Amino acid sequence: MALRELETYTRNSYNRNVNITYVYQVTVYLDEDTQKKVMKRKVIGKLDPDTGKVIPTGRKKASSSSENIDSEYKTKYEDILQKMQKQEEHSKTIHTQMTAVLKSMAVRFQEISRATDKAVAEINRLIAMIG
Question: Domain of 47?
Answer without folding.
Answer: 3-58
